[in-house]
């Protein structure tokens, strides 16, 4: 089983995720031992509305609504399920639009990079090992390292691809301060979390069918004292 480490999401609502190799991060959620699951509601009728998100709308029309939640609900990002690419060239303009990049190698081990303030803030292998740079044995001038600017990341990955075999590239965590990525329209599900009040967390899944929002599931958790 492949592990994904999402420090920002874990800090936000005390949840951790575990997934199979072909699943999105945090798709199957396990609550923190001190968190209590309160229940889930589902909206599935065309026209139903939740936080300004209306069933039947397209992903592109919903994105500005999510961006508005940055101010009203402190939602800073949305996770995009299945946003994977096999061609490195597809990433050139996309990487700066996201808060993370997962590079899956041919041996099945991924390198997981997380961004903050336009630079790489943390790095992990999917085995759970924290990294300062990758590849670990590479010269600093050639390696991807903590502190590297996100804008220069594509060039480094492109250089490393000549000596490494990469299976696919995953862009899961969409930065809502940046513009819409058309590839998001192909995703079957987006999800995000927010805290409506102290000690409480709401996890929202937006489910798509035929490139239209078909249902919304809202799960609520409460953190114990």
Automatic annotation (TrEMBL):
This is Lipoprotein.
């Amino acid at each position: 089983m492949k592990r994904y480490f999402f420090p920002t999401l874990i800090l936000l609502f005390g949840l951790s995720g575990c997934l199979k190799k072909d699943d999105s991060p945090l798709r199957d959620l396990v609550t923190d031992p001190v968190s209590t699951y309160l229940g889930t509601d589902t909206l599935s009728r065309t026209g139903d509305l939740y936080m300004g998100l209306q069933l039947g709308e397209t992903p592109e029309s919903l994105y500005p609504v999510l961006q508005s939640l940055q101010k009203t609900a402190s939602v800073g990002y949305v996770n995009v399920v299945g946003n994977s690419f096999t061609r490195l060239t597809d990433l050139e303009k996309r990487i700066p639009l996201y808060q993370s990049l997962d590079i899956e190698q041919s041996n099945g081990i991924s390198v997981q990079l997380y961004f903050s303030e336009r630079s790489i803030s943390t790095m992990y292998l999917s085995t759970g090992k924290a990294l300062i740079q990758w590849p670990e044995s590479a010269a600093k001038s050639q390696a991807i390292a903590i502190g590297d600017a996100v804008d220069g990341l594509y060039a480094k990955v492109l250089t490393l691809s000549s000596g490494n075999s990469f299976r696919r590239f995953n862009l899961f965590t969409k930065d809502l301060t940046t513009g819409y990525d058309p590839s998001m329209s192909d995703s079957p599900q987006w999800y995000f979390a927010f805290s409506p009040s102290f000690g409480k967390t709401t996890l929202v899944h937006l489910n798509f069918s035929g490139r239209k929002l078909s249902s919304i599931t809202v799960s609520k958790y409460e953190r114990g004292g």
